[in-house]
Automatic annotation (TrEMBL):
SUPFAM superfamilies in the cross-refs: Thioesterase/thiol ester dehydrase-isomerase
Pfam families: 4HBT
One GO cellular component, as annotated: cytoplasm
GO process annotations (BP): acyl-CoA metabolic process
Alphabetized GO MF terms: long-chain fatty acyl-CoA hydrolase activity
HotDog ACOT-type domain: residues covered: 11-122
Family: Belongs to the acyl coenzyme A hydrolase family.
Keywords tagged on the record: Hydrolase
Name of the molecule in the record: Acyl-CoA thioesterase
Keyword Hydrolase: yes
InterPro entries: Cytosol_ACT (IPR040170), HOTDOG_ACOT (IPR033120), HotDog_dom_sf (IPR029069), Thioestr_dom (IPR006683)
Organism for this UniProt entry: Wujia chipingensis
């Protein structure tokens, strides 16, 4: 009997998280430590990947992380994670970070792509559900995710 391959939509694992910037998040220049935001990005990516794979995951890599604006005390930061591409056991997760003003307007802080791997009970890679693409935007993200996956494999092969 052939195993049924599970399929999930991008919306099924979309994850959104909010944080208020507090004094303990600030460096000596009174702006948020980049490392704290990086930790939150990794957390959102992990939660998104867990929701898609329905199990434990491990962060394998983080692609480009460019900070577009600083965050200060009392700012609200919004992080949104979504699955963009899946391999056999790996998932590419895009995490967008925004500064949200009191009027609800959001301003980009950064975008990161992380690769996470689904793990079984023995901490070995396991198959993840396929990704059901429902929009042109999701299809375009899939295609660029495939290219990023190929670039990651090439960099690994070349020792980058």
């Amino acid at each position: 009997m052939e195993e049924q391959i599970k399929e999930k939509r991008v919306a099924d694992s979309l994850t959104e998280q909010f944080h208020e910037i507090r004094p303990e998040h600030l460096n000596g220049a009174d702006v948020m430590f980049g490392g704290i935001l990086m930790g939150w990005i990794d957390e959102v990516a992990g939660l998104t990947a867990m929701r898609h794979s329905e199990g434990h995951v491990l962060t394998a890599s983080v692609d480009n992380l460019t900070f577009l604006r600083s965050l200060r005390q009392h700012d609200i930061v919004v992080l949104i994670g979504r699955v963009t591409y899946v391999g056999n056991s790996s998932m590419e997760i895009r995490v967008d970070s925004y500064l949200e003003k009191i009027d609800g307007m959001r301003y980009p802080v950064n975008r990161a792509y992380l690769t996470l791997v689904a793990l079984d009970e023995d901490n070995k890679p396991r198959r993840v559900p396929r990704l059901k693409l429902e929009t042109v935007v999701e299809e375009a993200e899939w295609e660029t995710g495939k290219k990023r996956s190929e670039l990651r494999k090439q960099r690994k092969k070349e020792g980058f």
